[in-house]
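Kindly review this record before class:
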Amino acid sequence: MITVPDPFAAATIAREGEAGRAWIQRLPALTEKYLALWRCDLDGDVTSGAVGLIMPVRSPHGPAVLKISFTHPGNVDEPRALRLWQGNGAVQLYDEAPEDFALLLERVSTRQLDLPDDEAIAIGGELLRRLAVPATDDMPTLAAQAQGWEEQLHDQDHRSGRVLPRHIVGAALETIRDLAQDRTPTMTHGDLHAGNILDSDRGWVTIDPKGVAGNPAHDAMTMMLYGYQRALQAPDLRAEFDRRLTIFCDASGADPDWARRLTQARFVSGALWDNLLIHDGAAAATDPRAVIAGLLV
């Protein structure tokens, strides 16, 4: 039987309560079930991501990873996205058990994207271009999620005491409402950042997609966070983020106007969300993301 890492167990229980505790207790048995079913043997130390246990294994496909995640909504469509991509720009999916959120995946390096800023942003864009395959009709869409995002932003703005300038929040809300009308029919990653881009024998590949169809410019914001602290040292923040967005759009094919607007909206939402959790919203106005969001309007 495997031993669930204590920090992962504690974090899961703190986040999910009794449901998380029950799942942690089931994990060793679930692991044994899928090691046997998929004819795998453990081949290294057990680690974890934010919501899933990661186990290197030897499999009939070669070196692989057994990943078992908590039944989190963000993981539901991951295997469908991986099946569509078939290893083009993402790790390969060998087998799956949706009922237990268990996946058998290609094993790649643990090296995360760690290149100079401009090169890394371009690689993220190039991968996104490869992931932009036609989505199936049953895939969730960014457009359908926009209403929930709009309601969330209204709530964040209210609970923070409306600390951000009205034109900044208004621009974000307008973008979100426009996103609800967008009908881009191709796949996107949904959470494209350096931690979800790993080195492999095939070059850089993505992991942990949200499995969503829609405007690829939505992923610009998370790539703008690459080397974020270095970017904040630029003498002209607006010019620096315009330059970074251009690199991303040239590589990904995303529309530059959409990339700027969605980055602005996501920075507003992120600044409010994080500061509500940490400072009850009081520090949101001085959050660097809120400052940049004002420059991108």
